[in-house]
Design a protein that fits this description.
Blueprint (H helix, E strand, L loop, with lengths): L6 H30 L7 H15 L6 H5 L1 H69 L6 H6 L2 H5 L1
């Protein structure tokens, strides 16, 4: 108890008490901060995907160091997208050209059928003329070549 009257002892005890009070105050402040700001546990899969989407749409990836390192890959993907668009446009133009060619083929086929029908009719007319001449010759109506000329045989058939 003799130490209680020593001024050094009293100062030291006072310092210890103040340090303890300060530590208690800081502990209470940090505890109160924890209680007032609870942080929910994030879903790692959803938040990682959300972060990537936000970084992509917000353009944050452009400022990162990895962006410069991945530049050849990004350029390759960009070129592939351009090639894909070009191939799609080329396929569309080829499809239109094939449709036009198909329509033209149908028109030409119709013309061919009409021409063949006309040729067939002409052939039938020629065979009819020959059949009529045969009948006239058998019955004795045709002795001279005038009837051949009238039926359409022409000057060559009349000779």
């Amino acid at each position: 108890m003799a130490n209680q009257f020593d001024p050094k002892y009293i100062e030291e005890q006072e310092r210890i008490r103040k340090a303890g009070e300060r530590a208690e105050r800081e502990a209470m402040e940090t505890a109160s901060r924890r209680k007032t700001e609870p942080q929910p546990k994030p879903n790692t899969r959803v938040s990682a995907a959300g972060k990537r989407i936000r970084a992509l749409l917000g353009g944050e990836f452009l400022g990162k160091v990895d962006f410069r390192r991945n530049m050849p890959y990004i350029v390759m993907v960009f070129i592939m997208v351009i090639v894909l668009i070009y191939i799609n446009l080329l396929a569309q133009s080829n499809q239109k050209r094939l449709e036009l060619l198909d329509k033209e083929r149908i028109k030409l086929n119709d013309k061919y059928i009409q021409v063949m029908d006309q040729r067939e009719l002409l052939y039938v007319d020629e065979t009819r003329k020959e059949a009529l001449l045969q009948v006239f010759k058998e019955k004795g109506f045709v002795d001279d070549s005038s009837i051949v000329y009238l039926l359409g045989g022409g000057k060559e058939a009349a000779r």
